[in-house]
Amino acid sequence: MDGEDLANNDREEITHEEKEIAHEEFLEQNDSDEFLDEFGCSVCLLVAVQPTSLTCGHTFCRICLAKWYLTSKKKQCPLCGQAYQGHPQINIHIKNMSARLYPKQMKEREKLLELSLEDKTILQRFDKEILNKRPDRKTVGAFCLGITLTLLVFTSAYLTWFWQFSDIHSFTAKPVQFWKPSDVKDWLDDLSWTTEYIHNDIQNNIDGNILLAMDELSLLQHFNVSEPLYQKALLSAISKLKEQGVKMPSTLWEYTADDMNTS
Ligand SMILES: [Zn+2]
Ligand SMILES: [Zn+2]
Q1: Burial, 96: exposed, middle or buried (Cβ in 10 Å; 0-12, 13-18, 19+)?
Q2: pLDDT (tens digit, 9 = 90+) per residue, 66-101?
Q3: Residue 58 CA: which ligand is closest?
């Protein structure tokens, strides 16, 4: 019985040892350049020690990144130049994978880093400076510009909506481009002398933009104005509209309406 147990134990020990050796061999085989693209640092071209990933996805040794930052004083990726925000941290996932794939190189590099007082100082300076670094002027400028542009877009969108869909303003203060056919009709009625020449049913589809683009021929076509004198008068009224962009109030009622709208 005892002899059998011993033999079994021996066999187990051997298989355990064999496993260990196989594992070591496996790791040794993999301690190659095969995955260096993924786990290597693009600055020193070695397996990244304390691998630190940036927002662009590139990974570097923390010490390489620190040296790069302290030289350039810019929070930029050394490889693609993309700016990064905040305080980049060691990528634990890549660190663990590198430790498994490149055990020798990683141990060696970590040991060297641990022994170098200069590197330690550089890393401390990097951490300290990057935590205290305020966003540079360019970033602040771009941020302000972004806000201004957004406000402008919203304001113009609101005004477009306001002029197109809101009826609370009298057409006297409304830019001619936004005139509806009813505004054009009001404007024509306002000219008083046109009523006997222009028929209501013809004016229905003429909006502000069409009105501004009119010439003698279209006056004849759309408003049936053939009399040269009236054509001239109407064209000069239209060109006045073009100049002013809006219809200036001409009656007391329009002045009052305009005043109420602007106040
Ligand atoms: Zn490196
Ligand atoms: Zn990058």
Answers
A1: exposed
A2: 999 999 999 999 999 999 988 999 999 999 999 998
A3: 2
- Cα distances (Å, whole numbers) of residue 149 to 24, 142, 145: 61, 10, 6
Token pair belonging to 177: 């481009």
CATH number of 171-262: 1.10.150.50
For residue 46, give the ligand nearest its CA: 1
Token match 């009625």: residue? 189
Structure tokens at 154: 């919203």
The rounded Å distance from CA 110 to ligand 1 centre is 12
Ligand 2 center to 56 CA (angstroms): 5
Look at the domain 36-136 and name its fold: Herpes Virus-1 (3.30.40)
Domain ranges of the chain: 36-136, 171-262
113-125: pLDDT as tens digits: 999 999 999 999 9
- Rounded distance between C-alpha atoms, residue 155 and residue 153, angstroms: 6
Find out whether 224 and 195 touch, Cβ atoms under 8 Å: no
Question: Relative to the alpha carbon of 55, which ligand is closest?
Answer: 2
195, two tokens: 């009523």
Q: What pLDDT shows up at residue 243? A: 82
